[in-house]
Design goal:
Elements: H1 2-14, H2 22-30, H3 56-64, H4 67-90, H5 108-111, H6 118-127, H7 129-139, H8 150-170, E1 175-176, H9 189-206, E2 209-216, H10 218-228, E3 235-241, H11 246-261, H12 265-268, E4 270-280, E5 307-317, E6 320-326, E7 335-336, H13 337-341, E8 349-355, H14 360-364, E9 366-368, E10 377-378
Parallel strand pairs: 3-10
Antiparallel strand pairs: 1-8, 2-3, 2-9, 4-5, 4-8, 5-6, 6-7
Helix pairs in contact: 2-4, 4-7, 6-8, 9-11
Amino acid sequence: MKKYIFILIALFFIIPLNAGNFKDALSAAIAPRSDKYFLKVKGFKPSSKMPEGPSLWDGIVSFFTSEEDEYKQRAVADYIYNMYIIEAAKGARKSPAYLDTSYTGALDPIYRSDFKNAAELKKFYDKHLSKINALLKEDFKNYRYNPAEKTNAAQQNVYINMLVNTYNKNRAFSYFCGPAALSKNALTSARMAQLKRQIAVNDNKNKDLSVIYSYTDPMVMLDNATRTGGRTNATTYTYRPLREECAACSYSFCKDICAVTENKYAVYKLIRVYELVAKARSGFLKDKNGKDRFTSSSGKSFPQWDYHAASLLVFAEKDGPAFVVVDTILEKEPVSYEHWLSLFDKTSTYFSIKPFIRSKDSESKIMKTSEMPRSYKPHVIRK
């Protein structure tokens, strides 16, 4: 009996969709399984490995070939594919003007590309459309997708324009504050206990670490140059305890959770790890009440923030993905994605939700507090 059911399902997926109604037909095929949509989105699995840079030979070869163009073509095609899958799961008949957090996961390929701005991406899309379409046809081969069909071509342009509009509004490839991911599933109690234990281990390690800053004071540089009659190095090195610096704290946790779970998927079922950053379109970041000063769940008050960072984890639970945020500065325990978003002013906040990738530069700025030079000074905190 199972064999015949499998055959029927297979036949269902190779039936060509009506070219003029591809989006609606895809929704009909995926929506019944929309609680598991994130497993279909093209993204980047958790990894604790340090990415290796290109070799000298790779650099020489890529200079004479279109290797970089091919990488970008794949990134744009994967973004469009992700948008189709997410909107199919949402059952969305009409796309909005901007990306919001209900599209979490769509931008994963774009974050891993080298596009500098929206204008560059749009120009690239127009120039390489035929090759991008060929990749999309391969991605949707079971549905016999036809990118040349007018309705499909128009929809692809809608997705590109959503990305362009959002970038131009936020000055970044990002998401507006809005409804969170489709799935509202909670983390099981057993997996939540595992996560809390890992947070405790990470927090205990971080108490002995500091983050190094370096900056150049223009006035000091000018003064020294005037007195010495030439150039001078006025770079000042400062530090802040790692547990008090949100970006470094979230980076540290992402690194550790990847190392613990990447070879134990059956135990943890962790399918995505993101560095999550909230920013304001102008001025300082505002909380849910429109105030530019935040207070933690334990009552601690903070100075004005230019941004705030946390870790976003996506787990594969029985009924679909569960989205959990680890933010030890604002919250004592892991919270749902929806709850964390609700801490910010929805009218002025946007988010970068970037796949976690280890960085030699980031890790070079983290060191044991006991090993820091005596000349290092605490980093100034805005009052």
